[in-house]
Amino acid sequence: MSTLQLATSCSPPLSSSSSSTSPSHSNPSLSVGNNFIKFHHFRNISISAKHAAAKNRSLRHPITFRINCSAEAAAADGSEETVKEKSVSVILLAGGKGKRMGASMPKQYIPLLGQPIALYSFYTFSKMREVKEIIVVCDPSYTDIFEDSKDDIHVDLKFALPGKERQDSVYSGLEAIDSNSELVCIHDSARPLVLTEDVEKVLKDGRRIGAAVLGVPAKATIKEANSESFVVKTLDRKMLWEMQTPQVIKPELLKKGFEYVNREGLEVTDDVSIVEHLKHPVYITQGSYTNIKVTTPDDLLLAERILNPDT
């Protein structure tokens, strides 16, 4: 879990809504017929990515859903940035190996209710008016999963090769973006449940500040320990946030950040950390606890339950 400790002078993250109560959404039942797939013995998964994609092609329309959001937005200050239509380049990171899942394919391509995990956020971004293009960073052997969905989207689709580390994959995607893009929106494809409303909020904050990231207040008690595993101190939970994606950064700022970390030989664990090294402010946009990252079999079961609570 990535956490960021904030100085006590920081004001709370702002919502794009004037209300402090999150909207209530209905949860229609999700029916996918024979395409519903559950894994009870994850170590014996042998389904191939291409086979999963073939199953998905039997669904003529992408699976869509609404989630009841449990996170409450903080009070807004009345300011709001407008993100232009077709001004955002999405970098969808889909090159991970996903070894913790114990499956025979990367976690982002395992079917979730009949549809590869990576396609959920892919379709979410593709329907947003702000998005001009999606650059999928993935192994070439999996590009057909996204190419087979081209008829269902109305944005440009590009591909980039993944790198050894996360920052290398982000840089690869950054090199492929449209030169006229005003914002880069970086997202982990293993987070299928990101809400359109949350993406819209973080895009507005990214345009206003230059760099913004979705996050949720930490629930667990976090302790700092020394190299011998003895507690040094207990951190103030009220000042700690768990980072999520998307992480939104202006292209020129991200490029300057990469120049700096590459020159200094630095390694970073998330995208806004690149900008932090420039001493540029990074804004935390309050997101939703349902925006989980699917990395283990338990995460997959939780995602199924969130999508289809009646099962």
Automatic annotation (TrEMBL):
tRNA processing recorded as keyword: no
Molecular-function annotations in GO: 2-C-methyl-D-erythritol 4-phosphate cytidylyltransferase activity
Presence of keyword Transmembrane helix: no
Top EC group: transferase
Pfam families: IspD
Pathway linked to the protein: Isoprenoid biosynthesis; isopentenyl diphosphate biosynthesis via DXP pathway; isopentenyl diphosphate from 1-deoxy-D-xylulose 5-phosphate: step 2/6
One example of a Gene Ontology biological process annotation: isopentenyl diphosphate biosynthetic process, methylerythritol 4-phosphate pathway
Bias type Low complexity, positions: 9-27
Signal sequence interval, chain numbering: none
Region (Disordered): 1-27
Matching CDD domains: CDP-ME_synthetase (cd02516)
SUPFAM superfamilies: Nucleotide-diphospho-sugar transferases
InterPro entries, sorted: IspD, IspD/TarI, IspD/TarI_cytidylyltransf_bact, ISPD_synthase_CS, Nucleotide-diphossugar_trans
Gene3D superfamilies in the record: Spore Coat Polysaccharide Biosynthesis Protein SpsA, Chain A (3.90.550.10)
Key words, A-Z: Isoprene biosynthesis, Nucleotidyltransferase, Transferase
PROSITE patterns referenced in this protein's UniProt entry, alphabetically: ISPD
EC identifiers of the protein: 2.7.7.60
Family label: Belongs to the IspD/TarI cytidylyltransferase family. IspD subfamily.
Name the UniProt record assigns to this protein: 2-C-methyl-D-erythritol 4-phosphate cytidylyltransferase, chloroplastic
Annotated organism of origin: Erythranthe guttata (Yellow monkey flower)
Classification lineage: Eukaryota, Viridiplantae, Streptophyta, Embryophyta, Tracheophyta
